[in-house]
## 1
Amino acid sequence: MSDWREQVVGAVDRLEERLRDVAKDLFDHPEVKFEEVRASKRLAAELTEGGFDVELGVAGMETAIRAVHPAAGDGPTVAVLGEYDALPEIGHACGHNLIAAGGLGAALAVGSIKSELPGRLVFLGTPAEEGGGGKVLMIAAGLFEGVDAAIMFHPSTNTTIGRGSLAITEVKIEFHGKPSHASGSPEKGINALDAVIQTFNGINALRQHIVDGARIHGIISHGGVKPNIVPEYAAAEFYVRAPENDYRDELLDKLRKCAEGAALATGAKLEFGLVGHAYQAMRPNKVLGERFLKYLEASGIPYNPPKDKSMGSTDMGDVSQTVPGIHPYVQICEDDIAGHSREFAEASGSERGYVAMLAAAKAMAMTAVDVLAEPGLVKRIRDEFGAV
Ligand SMILES: [Zn+2]
């Protein structure tokens, strides 16, 4: 097997120029969620050239990819994942161009020796991680059925394997009041904006009593029309996040009560809606993660975990609750830089970013080879996954 590992490392080395070009191409042409037309076409073309049977446009998404290697035998199924959506205005400030190129590199490298290996190899191109939940839709469409290991990496300000992600739900709160002249006849009005403000106040009071690591953050998306009209309609949007799915649901209930209390106090009518995306908390598989880290270090990127424990949310959380999976972080810049910033975007198109992407491609390829070919490894992965 060490021979196979050497072969996939060699394959990534030979692919280096192409992978750098893919990463740069996506970086130079950022596309937001569900609009990743250029990126998905480029990846589909590369996978087709690499001998995969490629479907572009799966799970009801024009830009989702399923690419299956034709050399399929008995044994485990490995899925290598690639994200490629960018953020509005600030481009690849989450480094998904590197995720796509790294995942592609791992898939092509393992594909180059797949006829010698048992099992099945799949590349899944997953659109709209940033608020669209492409992976959630792909799970619903059955694309993760039978997958024994889902492997991806994410660029970051540190290198770590164990960091989870927060469960998240997006909420929209609307209040309907009654317009009236704000000075001439304020007593005849019902102020919907006050209801929104009371909701914020209720949530701010709640904050002292929620577990560490949970987050509730919101904006007022509509606050009235003119100061001389009592606001008839006002609305706010919140993200509710927590380290556990159940606790997220508990917080959601508390947030609803804050809004109901505000409605009662002001007389405005409440509409409470779950909108947009809801992602589950991440459960990173340790057995898989440790393999990845060992091979990443061997590829020149040292382990460098962050000092704090802050987390975001991702639809890889849902994947990791459905099948064993990893979402390790690989450092591409110094750790005083924030994610989703212009500085992080710069790092995603930098030499350091490309070097990290190539090392991650090698580590993912070697991990995938182990899953396919090492007797007993899938059982250990599955045992950990089953032990909740
Ligand atoms: Zn991201």
## 2
Amino acid sequence: MTQVMPDDLWRDFPKTATEFEARFATEADCRAYWIEARWGGEPACARCGSTRVWTIREGTTFECADCGHQTSLTSGTLLEKTRKPLKMWFRAIFEISTRRTGISGKDLQRIMGFGSYKTAWSWLHKLRAAMVRSDSEPLGPFVQLDEALVGGKGSPHKELVLVAAEANGRVRLAHVENNDEGTCKRFAEGQIAGDAHVVTDGHAGYNRDSLGERRHEAVVQTKAERRESDAVQSCHWTISLLKRWLVGTHAGAVRDKHLQAYLDEFAFRHNRRKTSGAVRIAARVIEQLVAHPPKTRRSIIDATRRCRWLGSNHAAPA
Ligand SMILES: [Zn+2]
């Protein structure tokens, strides 16, 4: 797949709702942007790579002049097989990106006028899948590491989440089974730079084996000391924002098996809160939608991604 320079794309992205409406007024406008994001403006045959293609089926598909293969605009992307116009998807992307705290399935259903909540839900999950992995640079140089229990309102059990946070910077979150040494090690390896200085509390899982060569400061604090100067304050702030977001935007209605997807969305927004803003988020989401392989509703439902980063058959994100 052709890689385009996303910076030019997002710089050009509409900045207000009015600009957005004007820029993406028609299906053709949205397709042009999609083609720009996916192929750098020049669509190519998915089978042979030829750019000698013409549009068929009202512009939703290209047919190759060389091999006859038909390539749909959305095939091989997260939006594969969508029956809805791109214009609707762009609208949903704008909504999810411009609301600082995101959007719930119910909100999206109402805004888009979907007949069923299930449709809104699966749209949100696809968009959420596009909200990961666009920054893979490990955290550093000063990183705090902590864990928290997160659970839905009234939920009998809580889920464990590992949190790594740069001081006033980016965060990474992982839904994990436990915080033993091996788990902490996999998390640190994937998310924290090898030369980072890491601050933790006194938990035994944070040690030489799990953190390797990184400089490690284990700070054991009493409650009073913590009130004075919290050694892992960025983590604690992140956790409290996360909990508020889960309850506020999603009414605590997050199933355990989908928690990682919500954590990814939270981190994605959090990590872009200062520099990029809504516009950049929306452009990034589109860029990720074209780059990600398809996901069916079934596959979303079946994906019990309890430990997407840490489970036996999943590699940590690069
Ligand atoms: Zn071809």
## 3
Amino acid sequence: MSYNLQVTIDGDSGFCFGVVYAIDMAEEILAEQGYLYCLGDIVHNDEEVERLKAKGLRIISHEELPSLENEKVLIRAHGEAPETYKIALEKNITLIDASCPVVLKLQNRIKNSSDDKEQILIFGKHGHAEVIGLQGQTNNTALVFQDLAELDQADLPKTFTLYSQTTKSTEKFYQIKEELLNRGYEIKANDTICRQVSNRDKELRSFAEKFDKIIFVSGTKSSNGKVLYNVCKEKNPSTHFVSNADQIEADWFVPGDSVGICGATSTPLWLMEQVRERILTF
Ligand code: SF4
């Protein structure tokens, strides 16, 4: 039996410009020198990382960085803390800096706030590379939290400046701001969520409603993948999360279904195309 499914890939899904920039830069150097070190996964998508590893990309951890000398190392779109630049200088490492301009701008704002002795709170994921880079701008004095419950135990100052990791949910950021204002704090709140994520949020809401089934393609480590998947799921309960084409199951569909495929800012188009090919075999 053929399911005769109508499958559409969302034209607005796929890499954001920050990720395109980092991957283009990596591929250019890989073509020239055959290998390139990259500090951490270049993108939160295992399939894309494997594709680039096959071309010579060598992923190293922060612990491994000081063991290199006289090498080129790529800094991915998430950016880095000042400590990384210091190590690179000491070890004569050439940093190929693909930090996203949006992240660099945010790092700069946080540094200025910190220099002005403001108390800083960052709404972000603990241990996330971007958040480590942001916190590094404050000599690690900023308080990072991922939900309001964490602040219940914290000894917060009366007045503080609030920032957000670029890939958090806009809705949640404003809920947090409101709640903290209700609790009587004086807050300078900066919505620093990347428009590539917040605009996609809106676009995906209307995309998800148009189809019987939604297949959301993303790596499990992607922060905005989680946010955007939840957006789809809220609008269309028949939304399934997959990281690759093999995870798709035929019994998710009924004959004649319309199926929308979409993904995170770290999901490559080629992967969404593989997912489409797989669905079309049903
Ligand atoms: S989501 Fe925004 S901030 Fe993050 S890499 Fe992409 S463009 Fe840059």
## 4
Amino acid sequence: MAADSGFDRTVPVLDRLLASLRRCRRSLPDQRRGLNTTYDMADFALAGFAPFFMQSPSFLAHQRHLQTGQGRSNCQTLFGPRKIPGDSQIRAKLDAIDPALFHPMFAAVVAELDRCGGLDAMRCLDGHVLIALDGTEFHCSDKIHCANCSQRKRGKDKIEYFHAMLAATVVATGHNRVVPLEPEFVVPRDGHDKQDCESRAARRWLEAHGARYARFQPVHLGDDLFSRQSICQAVLGTGGHFLFVRKPESHKAIEEFRAGIKLDERIDRIRSGKNWISRRYQWLSGVPPRGDEKAMTVNWPSIEITDAGGKMTYRNSFITDLEVSRENVAARAASGRARWKIENETFNVLKTKGYNLEHNFGHGKQHLATVLAILNLLAFACHTVCELADTAWRAARRELVTRQGFLQSPRIITTYLVFPSWDELLGTLAFTRPPPLGP
Ligand SMILES: [Zn+2]
């Protein structure tokens, strides 16, 4: 199949991305015994991925229907499984897979993004890539749970089960695209609180992936939870930079250090509609974030926004290893604030805009909940890369305006018609090709 030819420039972006998911089969464990092997293990991964990519929990059911009526289906022509496995088979096979085995597909996503110039378009602060780190929960339930669920007490004697992950997402100022990278799942361990779990997950993420992303000169963003010295040093150890939110109450040493010092200051007055608002920046360099002898030194920029009436509407401060000056303090603060995009543009979209991150497609006994979460993140990442890099996708998207509206169209049209390829499907949506004849 052409899609297996790796980075052949004549192969459309989406086919190359799906080929990378198909290649994960080499590492997928096949627990079946004997010769009666009807399905390739990659078929289960592709069949698990397809409903997320099509944003349709009933995609496979519709395709089985087409398969019966027309002898083939879009699941086969667009995603590649030779046969569509049953739902219970998919659940059972994916449950046994370590989610980390899908990591190579994130590398393929980043490679495509790099190739198409999408990553360069997202660079900030003179060539850095911003990677926002943040924790989120999914699959909260007081009934359904698995061996890898975290749990907490609710009320007197209720237990709530949930999964949590540290998401790493490429974000940019002045750019609404976000690209998820490999997540780090929080696995329950006795005796650690939520904050501890998230900061440990951040250090595991940096250890596993930080050095690989060093070539993008990453600046890691995160909330106050990440602004402890151990994580700052872990970031520097991977060759990256940090720009973490820092609340005054969690860094008394900085408050004490800056007391009595006249801070550098810059005030910008900016027009906002009919009114003028003012942005006041202050900064200090070479500050110890904690009080002991082994404290490292960091730079501390802060921002305060006041409205036309002089009322403060926003205030935040950060710690960073990047140099802060009168010229760059506004850009540093703007990048620090881009962290909110992981909440807004990623978690919010994944949970409410068709990706159904929290819907219960299945939970499993071991890894199913996390495997489905990772396939969902990959679907989101592939959509973003296609929007940036795939000409056929962009042409179809131009005709169908919004992201959600656009993603609905393939879902509906593939319920009735079988398309021989993505190019044919996208060509039909862009009105450059007639749809295939129905049965
Ligand atoms: Zn679970």
